[in-house]
Amino acid sequence: MTRFLIPLAAFVVLVGFLVVGLGLNPRQVPSPLIGKPAPEFQLQQLHQSEKTLTSKDNLGKVWLLNVWASWCVSCREEHPLLVQLAKSGIVPVYGLNYKDQREDALRWLKQFGDPYTVSIVDPEGRTGIDYGVYGVPETYVIDKNGVIRYKQIGPVTVDALQTKILPLVKELQG
């Protein structure tokens, strides 16, 4: 009898792991950077290439870093929401233009609107790698001390904005 119970128990445990694993949301991959200082950067601005922006320029304020590209189909999905968010003035949104051509990025922003306080250029994707970018779009909430507090993988949705991002921003601004 015991010889049948051990394989049965192992099977039940395996099924339990599969059920739990299949229930995970792949968009909620935990980032090792949450709770750690945002990686430092000094990158050219998209609109004014003679100027740069550094990660330290935003110390003292809560801000969002949105990783985007003109070739990104999902970026179009979230873009109207980012434009609305920028107009609200709740939190500054900075863009990290990822592995893109400057002319394409400028044309894209002209066509769809520019929600970014400043957009910076990461043509080789090195800064994106430092931030652990899996793919675009991704959005980070960064606190007043320059610490990453949240990472949205994939397009920002109304639900993510209302239930996660904005409540966290308000808490951090408070």
Automatic annotation (TrEMBL):
It holds the Pfam family Redoxin. This is Cytochrome c biogenesis protein CcmG, thiol:disulfide interchange protein DsbE. The keyword Transcription regulation does not apply. PANTHER family: THIOL:DISULFIDE INTERCHANGE PROTEIN DSBE (PTHR42852). SUPFAM superfamilies: Thioredoxin-like (SSF52833). Belongs to the thioredoxin family. DsbE subfamily. It comes from Nitrosovibrio tenuis. Residues 32-174 form the Thioredoxin domain. It is found in: Cell envelope. Keywords: Cytochrome c-type biogenesis, Disulfide bond, Redox-active center.
